[in-house]
Design a protein that fits this description.
The protein has about 400 residues and is mainly alpha-helical. It has a two-stranded antiparallel sheet with strand order 1-2. Strands 3-4 form a two-stranded antiparallel ribbon.
C-alpha cells in the first residue's frame, strides 16, 4: 500500500463528479439534488420552484385517476387499462418523496465518496475505482434510456390519436389519456381542459420516470463505488504479507485495512438504510406493472398498433431491468463483502507476526456478518429474487387474462 502517486484534490473531485454526473443531471431536473454551501442561487431557486410544480403535476394527474378507477370505471378492463399508468405515477411519487426526504443521507453518501477518492493514493487503486464508476454510469444510461423512452412512447402512443365521443347530442373530438380523470372532479373531455391535462400528464410522466431513474442510478453508483472499495481491499490483503519481515509495517497496513473495511461496511449499511423502502416499492410495483403490460400487449395484439406494442415492450424491459439492477446490486454486494473474509483467510497469514495475524481474525469475523440489501427488510435482493419476480408476474398475467376473457 505504498504511495506511488498522490492525487490532487481537483483530480479527486473530478473523478467523483464523473461517477455522479448522470445522476446529478436527472436529480437537478426534478429539484432533488442535495443542496450544499457550494450550490448557486440559481440551483437553490430552481429547486424551490420545481419541487412544488412537479409535486402538483403528479398529484393533479394521479388523484383524479385513482378516483376514476374506484368510482367511475364500470368494467374490469377499464380499471386494468388505467391501473398500469396509475401505479407508475404512485411509484414515481413515492420515489420522488423519498429523494426529497433523504437528501441529507444522499449528501452524506456523496461526501463519503469524495473522501474515498481523496484517500486512495495509488494510481492502480484509482484505476480500479474508475472501472466500477464507469459501470455505474453505464447502468444509469441504460436505465434512463429504457425508462424515459418507454414511458414517453407509451403516453404519446395513447394521446397521438384522437377519438370522437358524443356528449348531450354534441360530438366532441378529444385526445385520450393514459391516466383518465374522474369526470366529477376534472372533466378532461372538453377543450382546453383536454390539452391542459395532456401537458400535465406528460409532465407527471417525466417526473415519475426521472424519479425512478434517479433512485436506480444512485443505488447503482453507490453500490459500484462500494464494490470498487472492496476490490481495493482485496489488493491490500494480497499485499499484506509482502514485507512480513518488517512487522511494524505489516501491522500498520493491517490497521489501515481494518479501518477502511469498517468504513466501506458503514457506507453499505447507509445504502441499505436509504434504499430498502424504495426497493420494496419497486419490487412490488414493477411486478404488477409487468403483469399489466403483458395483459395490454395481449389485448392489443389483434389490432396490432405498432406504436403501442413497442411501447409496452420497452416499458416491460425497463421494469424488468430496474428489478434486475436492484437484485444484482444486492447479490454482488453480499458476495463481495463475504469475499473479504475469504481473501483474508487465503493470505499467507502464517508469514506474519502472531499478533498481526490474529488481527485478520477480526476481518474474517466481520465479513461473515454480511450486510444485505433488502426490499423493505422483508426480502433479500438477489438474482434468485429476480427469477421469483419474473415467475410471479407471469402467473398473475395468466390470472388477469382469465378474468378479462
Amino acid at each position: 500500500m505504498g504511495c506511488k502517486h498522490v492525487p490532487s484534490n481537483d483530480e479527486s473531485t473530478e473523478n467523483n463528479d464523473y461517477s455522479l454526473q448522470l445522476s446529478r443531471w436527472f436529480l437537478v431536473s426534478i429539484g432533488a439534488w442535495p443542496q450544499t454551501r457550494k450550490s448557486t442561487v440559481l440551483e437553490r431557486l430552481s429547486a424551490f420552484v420545481l419541487i412544488p410544480v412537479f409535486s402538483a403535476a403528479v398529484a393533479i394527474n394521479a388523484i383524479p385517476c385513482l378516483l376514476y378507477v374506484f368510482f367511475e370505471a364500470k368494467d374490469i378492463q377499464s380499471k386494468l387499462n388505467a391501473a398500469g399508468p396509475l401505479i407508475h405515477r404512485l411509484m414515481g411519487s413515492f420515489n420522488y418523496w423519498t429523494l426529497l426526504r433523504r437528501t441529507s443521507d444522499m449528501r452524506d453518501c456523496i461526501r463519503h465518496m469524495e473522501t474515498d477518492w481523496r484517500l486512495v493514493r495509488r494510481a492502480e487503486d484509482r484505476e480500479l475505482m474508475i472501472q466500477y464508476s464507469k459501470f455505474g454510469c453505464f447502468i444509469t444510461v441504460m436505465c434512463a434510456v429504457f425508462m424515459q423512452s418507454g414511458t414517453m412512447l407509451f403516453s404519446v402512443a395513447k394521446a397521438v390519436k384522437t377519438i370522437t365521443v358524443v356528449i348531450d347530442n354534441q360530438t366532441i373530438t378529444m385526445h385520450p389519456m393514459t391516466c383518465p380523470s374522474y369526470q366529477k372532479l376534472i372533466d378532461a373531455r372538453f377543450s382546453p381542459a383536454n390539452e391542459i391535462m395532456l401537458i400535465i400528464q406528460f409532465t407527471s410522466t417525466y417526473v415519475s420516470s426521472a424519479s425512478t431513474v434517479c433512485v436506480c442510478s444512485l443505488a447503482a453508483v453507490f453500490a459500484m463505488h462500494a464494490c470498487g472499495q472492496l476490490n481495493v481491499l482485496y489488493v491490500w490483503l494480497n499485499e499484506l504479507t509482502e514485507n512480513h519481515n518488517e512487522g511494524d509495517l505489516a501491522e500498520m497496513k493491517l490497521t489501515v485495512l481494518v479501518e477502511h473495511h469498517l468504513r466501506v461496511l458503514g457506507f453499505i449499511a447507509r445504502i441499505e438504510s436509504i434504499m430498502h423502502k424504495v426497493c420494496l416499492v419497486e419490487l412490488m410495483g414493477c411486478t404488477i406493472n409487468m403483469c399489466l403490460l403483458g395483459y395490454y400487449a395481449l389485448m392489443n395484439w389483434a389490432a396490432f398498433d405498432a406504436a403501442k406494442i413497442i411501447s409496452y415492450v420497452i416499458v416491460y424491459l425497463s421494469m424488468g431491468f430496474n428489478i434486475f439492477i436492484f437484485c444484482y446490486i444486492g447479490e454482488i454486494l453480499t458476495e463481495q463483502c463475504r469475499n473479504v473474509g475469504d481473501m483474508a483467510y487465503m493470505t499467507n497469514w502464517y508469514k506474519l507476526r502472531r499478533r498481526t495475524a490474529l488481527g485478520l481474525v477480526l476481518v474474517i469475523a466481520r465479513s461473515n456478518n454480511v450486510i444485505k440489501i433488502t426490499a423493505g427488510k422483508l426480502f433479500h435482493l438477489s438474482i434468485t429474487t429476480f427469477g421469483d419476480v419474473i415467475k410471479t408476474s407471469v402467473v398473475y398475467l395468466n390470472i388477469l387474462r382469465t378474468m378479462a376473457m
